[in-house]
Give the backbone structure.
Amino acid sequence: MQSPRAVVIGGGIGGLTAAAALHHQGWAVTVLERTAALEPVGAGIALAANALRALDTFGAGDAARALSGWQADGGLRLPGGRWLSRTSNEAAARRFGEPVVVTHRADLVALLASRLPEDAVRTGSPAALADPGGPARPARVTTPAGDLEADLVVAADGIHSATRALLFPGHPAPHYAGFTVWRVVVPRPSEPFPAHETWGRGTTWGTVPLHDGRVYAYAQAVTPAGGRSPDGELEELRRRFGSWHHPVPAILAAADPSAVLRNDVHHITTALPAYHRGRVALLGDAAHPMAPNLGQGGCQAVEDGAVLGLLLAGGADDLPRALPAYTAQRLPRTMEVVRRSARIARLVSLSAPPAVALRTAAFTVVNRLGPRVVLRGHDGIADWHPPVHPYASRTKARTREAL
Ligand SMILES: Cc1cc2nc3c(=O)[nH]c(=O)nc-3n(C[C@H](O)[C@H](O)[C@H](O)COP(=O)(O)OP(=O)(O)OC[C@H]3O[C@@H](n4cnc5c(N)ncnc54)[C@H](O)[C@@H]3O)c2cc1C
């Protein structure tokens, strides 16, 4: 019997997860990536327990856990170094089932790609949806090497998804969230430090050790969209963060100016009417771009891909019920994460002195209550489990379990 065939547009974290999950279920997959190589941005990514459990559905969870670099405790600080609240990865593990894994994006992408047959990924292959297909008609994707027909197309073409615009014309595009972010990976400074995120006035800096001896740092600042520093982004970071507590100056000193990434953050605030049309499923940033402040954009893309794989375990015959079930399961959940991420982004972006003072006072109180209170912000997100029965909603699955 011939395998059902899926074409995935986009070889980012979401597209590769979907491809690996579908391949695990017996689908023949082709991933079309427009760039010349699978080269993720030079930055880290945090994978919370929900993403690790999603990776478990196709056997990739333990390899991801092995990439863990952050074993020490950390927390939230002020630019002068004072702790606002402490977080313990052990407490996170107790609450959500396992600790957060922070790894380099390249390692995660390599791990996902290694779950696919060698010829499954075509790089240098910009693709466009030509026909979303229908009940009796395959979907069609245009590539430089000719058109491809597929039982299923996975649109994982990222935040500026052309597929989303084609399927949902007139739907509001993602808009500027009000802040820009910088990211860099450097060798670990010699003087030790705990992982931290530090909140200033409309500015944030975070530093997390990676498993390979390097350190991933990210920074954020409220600023008009489209800005670029005339003397380079490293100089901009030095001006904004150079006087902050250790290890920030040490990281700035170690950073290669050409390796500092800067991106304006865009997110969606109006949910799409659905995450599918015809034989096309949208996932990851193509469906629900969100502010990065909960560290969940990639995790939700991984959940999307895993759920799609589970729903389509029965092959192409399952498509008529699998795609509506995919929308039903993923749209409300991911939009809730979008909304919660936007709320944290607003809190982090506060810059008026009275508002910042109030925020500091609130976190000082929270800190007295222990890490449990801070971790509560991830309740309902990091404690996610893959659906017990692929066509059951979480509520129905829970009810059945309880009976
Ligand atoms: C500063 C920052 C920090 C973040 N930190 C975290 C974190 O710690 N944890 C977390 O879970 N998430 C994090 N995120 C979010 C996460 O990076 C994204 O949600 C995730 O990368 C989305 O993956 P994706 O595969 O949907 O999209 P992308 O990674 O954007 O991949 C889309 C791919 O599609 C390709 N493509 C586009 N158009 C075409 C086409 N026409 N044909 C072929 N290929 C095409 C692109 O080249 C790209 O490779 C962060 C985001 C930012 C900005």
About this structure: The domain at 5-73+99-173+269-349 is CATH 3.50.50.60 (FAD/NAD(P)-binding domain). Residues 9-15, 32-35, 45-46, 126-127, 156-159, 162, 181, 183, 218, 263, 265, 284-286, 292, 295-299, 301 surround flavin-adenine dinucleotide (CB under 6 Å). The first strand starts at residue 5 and ends at 9. The chain is about 35% helix and 25% strand.
